[in-house]
Amino acid sequence: MKALCSVAFALLSAVPALANISVSSPAIGATVTSPFTLAASADPCSSQAIASMGYSLDTTSTTTIFSGASIAVSVPASPGSHMLHIKSWGNKGASCTADVKITVIQKAATATTTTNVVVTSPTSGASVTSPFPVAASGTTCLGQSVTALGYSLDASSSTTIVNGTTLGASVAAATGAHTLHVKSWGKSGASCVSDIPLTVKAGATSSGGPSIPVSAVITKALQDLTTWTAEHDAGTSGSSSGSMSLVSSPAMSGQARQFATTYSNYGGERYNIKFGKDQASTNFVFDAELYIAGSASGISNLELDLNQVMANGQTVIFGFQCDGWSHTWDYAVNTGTPTSPTAHWMHSTQACNLQQWATNTWHHVQIEYSRDNSGNVTYKAVWLDGAEQDLNVTALSAFALGWGPSVNINVQLDGYTSTSGSSTIYVDNMALYSW
């Protein structure tokens, strides 16, 4: 066969020439773990100076390209046999390719770098859906007190960094094998890394949430608004009080809202934000990240409500809560009429046990519902950390309260004790999609 490119190096006589491309890693027939290191260089291709190099894997049509005559990159791949295609391009359009067959095996379930970082989620070698929660903590790195934690995925040069000694995040990734790099930094510059191999599996929940049309209106960063109010919910027994502040840690966006609540005799504290006057939208997705600090044992119910005043002046209450007594997701119902209402909580068939939520980590909650012009609400589904739970129930939830046009959200925390207690939660990336 006539060679298209000059040979840059010689292999054993039994192995075909690899055009002009010299591959130092991986070797032909090598067994590697994911991600593996690809290192190669190229001489002129069809007498043309090398302008760029790149690679693709197996039969994918996607080629990753880098400028210059050498390449050094970390490549993720699922376990099994693969054909790695290493490519070079001349400055006048010539192209050359070298094919290297490799076998990828599952990396041992151990951290690759000695570090104090403790990763509680995901576990090494875990099979997850996207997005998946990341939870880690650390106090020292190479003898230095930890000042920040962070993470990156595979060979990405982008690292998400959070100040402090705890890390909570929700990470999206494509289906396949990946390596999560969880990192810590000491106060004098030391750095430590734990590498966590995982596999993102395909499935109904891999999208991590509801389907939202591109035409939807999104109101973002509701936690940052300065007009939040707090008050005791007179519908609960006992008493409660609460305070709020914006904090940089723990936070995912850079700024989260802290809700610090004290209770007695099962009292409930309601936090409310008004942010619009939309009377036309009939479909909604509530979306937020929640972080329970320390322990969830003091919280009986976590309530997340959306209220909308319709064009007829009646208020639709999209009431929704994780019920700590029945361990179910509950939804609000008016068993009376809008002008003579009787409000009730109804238990759904879907489980929610707040006391089993991992604490000191972020949880992604998405709630999808819609209404008609009479205030009948269809509670469609809730997603917790990407796992879908279908409700598909419809109930009247319209109330003639005499409110002016408004849209508002409640975050309510109810106490779990007949004596006294307290809890602290954080909310970040709070958004409402409307259409």
Describe the overall structure.
- This protein starts with 20 loop residues before the first strand and ends with a strand.
- With 435 residues, it is mainly beta.
- Residues 1-18, 108-114 and 203-207 have low confidence and may be disordered.
- Strands 19, 22, 24, 25, 26, 27, 28, 32 and 33 form a 9-stranded antiparallel β-sheet that branches. Strands 18, 20, 21, 23, 29, 30, 31 and 34 form an 8-stranded antiparallel β-sheet that branches. Strands 10, 12, 13, 14, 16 and 17 form a 6-stranded mixed β-sheet that branches.
- The chain has no helices and 34 strands.
- Strand 7 (80-90) and strand 8 form a beta hairpin.
- Helix content is 0%, strand content 56%.
Tags for this entry?
34 strands, 0% helix, single chain, mainly beta, 9-stranded antiparallel β-sheet, elongated, disordered N terminus, 8-stranded antiparallel β-sheet, 435 residues
Q: Biggest β-sheet, characterized? A: 9 strands, antiparallel
Distance between the termini: 62 Å
Question: Whole-number average pLDDT?
Answer: 85
Are there runs of 5+ residues with pLDDT below 50, and where? 1-18, 108-114, 203-207
Estimate percent helicity.
under 10%
Structural class: mainly beta
Share of β-strand residues: over 45%
- Continuous helix count: 0
- Cα shape: elongated
Query: How many individual β-strands?
Result: 34
Gyration radius, rounded: 27 Å
